[in-house]
């Protein structure tokens, strides 16, 4: 195996280890999903910049719908993510782990109730109202 590949593997192991140490109620895959959503969002911007909680929450919604379609809400809930507030808690855990950086003024409240999962993942479908929970 070449050294750069080994270095990338070591980096990935370190990232997963740091997340696992702090994962709390969320599956490690949920944290990796948030990081992937952030990277995807950054790649779509004209230039890399700080993004706010609302932007990242919407990026997570968009990636979930693209990757999981009708199962988006189910997948996220399986990982312990039931609201945009959970995305915020994971972001601040990633900040505490040294994997993301916050700017002055960033707050957990920036993620509060950005959208309802039911509306974001089910309301657009004709059968989206079959579930009674929010």
What can you see in these coordinates?
This protein has 134 residues and is an all-alpha fold. The protein has one domain (18-121). The chain is built from 6 helices and no strands. It has helices at 3-22, 28-44, 53-68, 72-78, 84-96, 117-121. The model has no long low-confidence stretch (mean pLDDT 87).
User: What is the 3D form?
Assistant: globular
Q: How many separate domains make up the residues? A: 1
Assign the structural class, choosing from mainly alpha, mainly beta, alpha/beta, alpha+beta, or little secondary structure: mainly alpha
Radius of gyration: 16 Å
What is the mean pLDDT? Answer: 87
Question: Which structural traits does this protein have?
Answer:
134 residues; mainly alpha; 6 helices; 58% helix; 0% strand
Overview in brief:
With 134 residues, the protein is mainly α. It has six helices and no strands. The chain has helices spanning 3-22, 28-44, 53-68, 72-78, 84-96, 117-121.
């Amino acid at each position: 195996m070449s050294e750069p590949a080994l270095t990338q593997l070591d980096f990935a192991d370190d990232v997963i280890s740091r997340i696992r140490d702090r994962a709390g109620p969320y599956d490690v895959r949920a944290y990796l999903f948030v990081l992937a959503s952030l990277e995807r969002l950054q790649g779509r911007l004209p230039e890399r910049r700080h993004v706010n909680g609302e932007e990242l929450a919407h990026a997570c919604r968009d990636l979930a719908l693209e990757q999981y379609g009708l199962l988006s809400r189910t997948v996220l809930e399986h990982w312990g993510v039931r609201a945009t507030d959970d995305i915020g808690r994971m972001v601040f855990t990633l900040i505490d782990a040294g994997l993301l950086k916050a700017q002055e003024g960033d707050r957990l409240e920036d993620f509060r109730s950005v959208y309802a999962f039911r509306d974001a993942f089910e309301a657009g479908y004709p059968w989206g109202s079959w579930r009674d929970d929010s």
